[in-house]
Amino acid sequence: MGKHLQHGRAEASWAGIHNAFESKDTRFLKVARFLTFLLFGIAIGLLVAMLFLLGAALHLNHEPMISDVYTYLVWIGSLVLAGLVSLAIFRP
Question: What is the domain range of residue 66?
Answer without folding.
Answer: 26-89
